[in-house]
Specification:
Length: 192
């Protein structure tokens, strides 16, 4: 666990160091979203039915920033509570491409993260044929992909994003990842 956390911190700090410090004219961008999360394969069915609410706060660093496009790296902290399953904190980073069409924009991201999960149900592990109670708090690797669209106003932007992430390793009956989907509604503003 300590090695995984150290590795993730190294990856995140490397991405920050490699990103050019090309801040927008208004200052450091801060992103805040509210999202609905559910366990499901990628689709748009029932995304708000039995959805779990979460919040995410993050920032963006830019590798390249032009009038019509941006290459960026995100760093995010999030929390959600999935009733009767678990609560999760996560630290994620995504590499993304954003294309502007006037003031409207679309973006795509691919990323990696670490989830710290507290299970709502008791957990047991098999040790030499005996099942013993295991900790209800554990960590998981979380690769992600996302698509978003929004509108840039003078001092802020409003957007929506659809994201998929996997909770890995899952390991139940040989399934390598538990798929999650999220729909975000958020804003990005620049702090001076």
């Amino acid at each position: 666990m300590k090695h995984l956390l150290t590795s993730l911190l190294l990856v995140f700090s490397s991405s920050i160091a490699l990103a050019q410090v090309d801040m927008p004219s208004g200052g450091i961008p801060i992103t805040v979203t509210v999202f609905s999360e559910s366990v499901s394969l990628p689709n748009f069915k029932n995304i708000f039915k039995n959805g779990s609410l979460g919040v995410r706060i993050g920032t963006e660093l830019y590798y390249s920033k032009k009038d019509s496009r941006q290459l960026m790296q995100t760093i995010n902290l999030s929390y959600y509570s999935h009733k009767d399953l678990h609560n999760a904190f996560s630290l994620t980073s995504e590499f993304g491409y954003r294309r502007f069409f006037g003031n409207a924009f679309a973006d795509a991201t691919v990323g990696v993260g670490y989830m710290l999960i507290h299970s709502a149900m008791p957990r047991y592990e098999n040790v030499n044929g005996d099942f013993i109670k295991a900790s209800s708090t554990f960590g998981r690797f979380a690769p992600s992909i996302g698509l978003g669209a929004g509108y840039q106003f003078k001092n802020f932007s409003a957007f929506t994003r659809y994201e998929m992430f996997g909770e890995m390793p899952f390991g139940f009956k040989g399934i390598p990842a538990l798929p999650h989907k999220t729909i975000h509604i958020g804003t990005r503003l620049n702090l001076k």
